Automatic annotation (TrEMBL):
Species the sequence originates in: Streptomyces fodineus
Superkingdom, taxonomy of origin: Bacteria
Gene3D superfamilies, per the entry: Winged helix-like DNA-binding domain superfamily/Winged helix DNA-binding domain (1.10.10.10)
InterPro entries for the chain: HTH_HxlR, WH-like_DNA-bd_sf, WH_DNA-bd_sf
Coiled coil: none
Domain HTH hxlR-type: start-end pairs: 12-109
Protein name per the record: ArsR family transcriptional regulator
Length: 175
């Protein structure tokens, strides 16, 4: 039987979600957007992704209401991509997926995600085990861990070395 291009025959919410976020690069674009990356060129240099692929993924993500395209400059026209509620709702999934990757594939910790109020590292679904609360994404502080390259070549990776809150727009230094 030929392998279909989609999961149309699957009556399953996971299959429905994977129709949107299961393509290569898509979840990494969402991850970067939650980290505060907003501009096309910043996604491009941070992901090292072919331009046509990035354009296609941004198109899908905006069409599906996961990112919102906003014009921030008129001439020349420049847009940025901002996570919507639907995009932000992927945060616990990404958090859990990241921990799964580290626990099962033995990676040194690349980043810490902490509750801004108390400094505790978040649990697997974005909760604070000390405050016993689900931490709103804007109260999550990300910091570099020991496994991260501390002298990266691209300006976006360099900007992400500074502790920052999720969603806070990233302002990379010009290359
Ligand atoms: Zn806390």
């Amino acid at each position: 039987m030929a392998l279909g291009k989609d999961y149309a025959t699957q009556e399953c919410s996971i299959a429905r979600a994977l129709e949107i976020v299961g393509e290569r690069w898509t979840l990494l674009v969402v991850r970067d957007a939650l980290y505060g990356v907003r501009r096309y060129n910043d996604f491009l240099v941070h992901l090292g992704i072919p331009r046509a692929v990035l354009a296609a993924r941004l198109q899908t993500l905006t069409a599906e209401g996961i990112l919102e395209k906003r014009r921030y400059q008129q001439s020349p026209p420049r847009d940025e991509y901002v996570p919507t509620e639907r995009g932000i709702a992927l945060w616990p999934t990404l958090r859990a997926l990241g921990l799964w990757g580290r626990e099962h594939f033995g990676e040194t910790q690349l980043r810490y995600f902490r509750h801004a109020d108390c400094g505790t590292e978040l649990g697997p679904y974005g909760e604070c085990p000390v405050c016993r609360t689900v931490v709103p994404i804007g109260d999550v502080v990300m910091e570099p861990g020991p496994g991260l390259d501390h002298d990266p070549a691209d300006p976006v990776s360099r900007a992400l070395l500074k502790p920052k809150r999720l969603l806070e727009p990233l302002e990379p230094e010009p290359a």
